Description:
The structure is a single chain. This protein has 396 residues and is an alpha+beta fold. It has a domain at 170-393. Helix content is 29%, strand content 15%. The protein contains 7 helices and 8 strands, in the order αααβααααβββββββ. It is elongated, with a radius of gyration of 42 Å.
Amino acid sequence: xxxxxxxxxxxxxxxTVPDDVWERFARDSERDIRASAPKEPSAxxxxxxxxxxxxxxxxxxxxxxxxxxxxAAGPEGWRTSPARRAAEVRAARRRKLWAVxxxxxxxxxxxxxxxxxxxxxxxxxxxxxxxxxxxELPAETAAPTTPPxxxxxxxxTRERPFAGSPAERWADGADAIVVPKATRVGVLTRDQVATxxxxxxxxxxxxxxxxxxxxxxxxxxxIAVLDPExxxxxxxxxxxLSAPEREHDPLTxxxxxxxxxxxxxxxxxxxxxxxxxxxxxxxxxAIHADYTFVYPVSPADGNTDEVTRTxxxxxxxxxxxxxxxxxxxxxxxxxxxxxVSIGNSACDVYDGFLHPRFGSAASAGATPTGPTTDPYxxxxxxxDSPKADCRRLSRT
Length: 396
């Protein structure tokens, strides 16, 4: 017999869950919590991580040195401090700044390396323009109609040997001798005319700018351009150089200084002028060159800080003759006319050298007696005589 009580059990809100289900839930939850919790790395793990990081940084630095590239930024380590992150940000900004400035700086360095005279103050023994001198003048394309304007009264120095002179804005050396574009002339082809024009420039450079010539040595580079077939030319030049005299003065064709007396200041000679050409006789090409050369010099000994200038203007007419009409050496030039005007050199001295006048020492030769003239005036014609009279100068 089963007795049934009339009293019912109390009702509650808790779900009725079997004990085995609760136990399984507790075990799974504890396992998941342990798996997801952060773990402190072991000492060995930290050592391995640090070694791998150092190796990656060294490889990145080697890549930068070899390729000039910057390694990509890696993920931020969980132990990276704020100070280290700030330092890395500053370093990245410096690298970006140098990347922006590097290209313009490299261009400036390359330009100055090709032409140091652009630097102010005449560094590297070169003389150049300064802020007060103004920009370099464009190349001369026609005969000037007036002399250059007066310059500020300044004495030349070793740092600025062209100060106070119109030549301070002239081009330097051989670069100032601009060869015009060649065209066919008469029976001569464009290539033949180009050869004649290049030969004319080589003659001017060899006679007035070559270091050996300026030191008073044999002007071999200039002589090599001249045609030995031209009657009397080879003999005349040989006599000029071996036994100079009034009637055979090498200064009528070559600029030469006695190295025992003077030395050039720096390595720059200022030059201005032009070359033109036209058809000559019997199908030849006639070339006209008119150039002024300005040489800054100082005494070879004694007061070496004193600087003066000698100014030489040359007018040269040469011909590239038609080989069908004349007996010529291929590629060589014949001289038709040469005239010269020399400013600031001893008068009536015929030893084959230019002798600049310095204020600190007695000058050789006679005192200039000719009319006063401006040696920088390229608008006037030169005398037809091989060497113009020794004139008084309005400026040097």
